[in-house]
Amino acid sequence: MQPYKPLIVAFCCNWCSYAGADLAGNNRLSYPADVKIIRVPCSCRVNPMFILRAFQRGADGVILCGCHPGDCHYTTGNYYTRRRMSLLFSMLDYLGIERERTRVEWVSAAEGAKFAATMNDFAETVAALGENKRLEDLRCKK
Amino acid sequence: MQKINREALIEKAAALLDAGTVDRVLAWKRGEFDYDVTPGLFTTREQMEAELVFGDFCGANMSKYLIKETLKGEGKVLVFLKPCDTYSFNQLLTEHRFDREKVYAVGIPCEGMLSVTAIKAAAGDGISKIDVTEEGVVVETLFDGTKVFGHDEMLAERCRNCKSKRHVAYDELMGEEGEVLDSARFDEVAKIEAMSSEERFAFWQGELSRCIRCNACRDVCPACTCEKCVFGNPDSGIENKAITDSFEEKMFHIIRAFHVAGRCTDCGECSRVCPQQIPLHLLNRKFIKDANNLWGDYQAGEEVGSRAPLVDFDFDDMEPGEAVIKNGGEQ
Ligand code: SF4
Ligand code: SF4
Ligand code: FES
Q1: For a tag site, which of A6, B154, B298, B313 has the least CB within 10 Å?
Q2: SS3 call for B310
Q3: B 231-290 residues inside an 8 A Cβ radius of A
Q4: Banded pLDDT at A100 (limits 50, 70, 90)
């Protein structure tokens, strides 16, 4: 049997975290190939629905990366992200969805190493949880 | 029993109609049964005398109807508002959903509304009449005679945990003004939080899987006023009128509650109208409780123009990872 590999969706803001991922690549730092990056203009572009849709389509974990607080390209976007995700993640926890399946991390364009380390750590955490059973849409898994 | 009766409302409304202050009246209208009350629009005393009711089954919150009604004519609409309804009224004003100039709001006192579901559960089948008297709730049944229940035991959940008997908006007040109450409305949420993750999952699975996606909770919600709703979008992944998968149940309910997070006044209408008795208020209250817990107490609708927590921030807000722990407790 193949060892279980979680599918991870990473929303990365264009100005910091996506560039951070690029840097990780340029520096040949490795992170799991099952991390699928979706580029968004700003972390606050991520509607809670995006996170749920990712789970619907088969993600086992969803991580949202943006510029460090204070460094958002649009000045304040990530402050709103922080509040929004605090509520969303608490709600998921309340519904009994494992809280380790969601995460927010601030990664700057200079932090290629942090990007790789974050993804490795998150993939490991999610792998330990196993497949996402509580929030899946079986029709999308065919 | 309510302190104010239908006659008083009719007198007040007829006087305002006669004086030309308003030209139509939004109030409660008789339905098929005593407990089956529906929102109605009246323009004459005769209509009101025939069909306007006020009593212990007038839970319906009239404020949302103002959006469409105020667009219909130049004259003012008279609306009767219970204390909890006035919070929704203010919230709608904050969001510029209707023109305040076109409304004449009369605040009325409320002694708590009864839950038809609770009465049906207690009295059994074949209810032919429900009277609310000094004695309590007197229920006549076809098969089992007359039964009497205590008023407080039959209160709707939202009224048992009423947050305020004070009106936060009105042009005129009938009866005595009440106070903001110390309610235990978050206790139930805390109980669920204290369960293990597996228990919480099972609890919500049990509740949400009963949903038939009638969308009544959205339709009645005074905060859900979008002309185009996300649940009508074929690309949303949850546009189906019937839920086909357990994922959709959760997605629908998370999104519905999230869309009103920070704006929900906790009026309790969603739980009242749900034909499946799903405790939707427990989702809304979770958001309210968490927002209070993280960013300080905030009551939507208390003040017109106040800034809701999700459209605001602090530089030193907590990170989401820590916030989940703070809101849910260590596990
Ligand atoms: S569920 Fe969301 S999109 Fe639909 S009416 Fe309510 S707030 Fe608007
Ligand atoms: S009112 Fe009840 S059954 Fe209808 S959509 Fe809302 S939760 Fe589901
Ligand atoms: S642009 Fe990166 S978080 Fe806003």
Answers
A1: B298
A2: helix
A3: 236-237, 244-245, 247-248, 250-251, 254-255, 257-258, 261, 283, 286-287, 290
A4: very high
Chain A residue numbers touching B206 (CB-CB < 8 A):
none
CB B245 within 8 A of CB B121: no
> What would the two tokens of residue A71 be?
């460094």
How many CA atoms are closer than 13 Å to the CA of A79, on its beta-carbon side?
Answer: 15
Query: Tokens in use for A11?
Result: 């929303």
The first and second tokens of residue B97, run together, are 């959903």
Domains of chain A: 8-140 (3.40.50)
pLDDT > 70 in chain B, percent: 99
CB nearest to B323's CB, from A49, A90, A94: A90
A65 min Cα distance to partner chain B (Å): 12
B69 contacts: CB under 8 Å, gap ≥ 6: B24, B26, B41, B77
pTM above 0.90, yes or no: yes
Residue B26 host element (H or E): strand B24-29
Q: Is the pLDDT of residue A49 over 90?
A: yes
Of B53, B293, B106, B279, give the one whose Cα is nearest residue A86. B293
Instruction: Find out whether the beta carbon of B167 lies less than 6 Å from any atom of ligand 1.
Output: no
Mutation site, A83, A107, A136, interface B, largest B CB count within 10 A: A83
- Give the ipTM of the model, two decimals please: 0.94
